Amino acid sequence: MEIGKWVKKTFFGLPRYDCSVSNVPELTTLYPGQRIEFPRVTRHNVCNPTILARPDGFAAIVRGCNYDLGVRGGFFYGSAAVPVPDSQSYLYDLAPDLSILAMSLIEDRPLRADEAALDGIEDLRLFVWRGAQWVIGSACNYIAKRNTMMMARLEGSLLRDAVFFPSPELAPKEKNWAPVVQGDDLFFVYTHHPLRVLRYDQGRLVPHLHAETPARLVSFSGSSALMPYADGFVGVAHHCYPAPGPFWRIYQHCLVDYGPDFRIRRVGPSFRFENDGVEFCAGLALTATDAIFSYGVNDKKAVLFRLPLASFETLLG
Q1: What is the CATH number of the domain that holds 49?
Q2: What does pTM read for this prediction?
C-alpha cells in the first residue's frame, strides 16, 4: 500500500516524496507496543539512540546534545552559553525487558584530538563484526562545517582503533551510512537512489555495488544498521524535507528489504513514529518474537519502541 503521494516538490533540485499528507500513520498509535524513554543523565538533552540485541539482553548508545532545535545557536555547556554544539554518548546495558542495568559515559576525548571530531561524534550505530562491538558515527567540526564518518571498536566504554573515512564524493558533510555485516566482511550502504554499497578493506573503502532503485527512494538515507532477516537483510531508511514550524523539517521512515546481494527487494509503506517534527531512527534490533526500534524525537527524547514481529512484518509490506 502506498502512503502519501508523489508531488512535484523539489529540495536542492531533487524531487521529494511528500510526507505532509495527513494519512501517513504514526507507528506508536498504529500498532500496540512497549514505549520506553531513556532518562536525561547530564544537562545535555538525550536523543537518537541505537540498539543491539545480545544473548543476555541488549546494548544501547544514546546521544547527548547541548542545544535546543527550536533556538538557532542555542548551545550551552554547564551553566554557560557556548558558540558550538557538542555531542556526548552514553552506553547502556539493558535487560531483556529493556530495563536499564548499567550506564557509562563513552570516552571520546582521544578522538576529539583529531580536528575532524573536535565537537564530538554524532549518532553512533552499534553493530557486531568479527566477534567485537563496533560503532560508526559522524564526527563533527562545527566551525569548519564538516562531518566525517568515523568507525571504532567499542571496548568497555572506550573507543579503540578509530578510522576516519574520507568522503567518497569529497563532500564536506557525511552522515547516515548504514553498516551491514556478512560473514567476516563489513559493508556500508552509502546511498539508496541509486543504491551504492561500499566494502571496508583494511582501512579503506572499496565500491561493491551500484544498482538502480525505485524512484520513491530518491533522497532517502540510511538510518539503522541492517539486520539479518529471512535470507537477506532489513533496515530502516528515512528522508526529510524543509517544513514550517520550530524544527524546520519533517522526517518520514520506511522499512527496506535487501537480498543477500544487498539489492533492494521491497520498500514498506511510509510512517512516522509519533509526530511531525524531527524523528531520527538510529537502531533496529530483532529477536525471535519482537522488533525494537530506537529513535530520537526533536533531539530532546531518546525512545525505544518494541512491537511484535508479526506487526513488524506487516509494516514491511
Answers
A1: 2.115.10.20
A2: 0.91
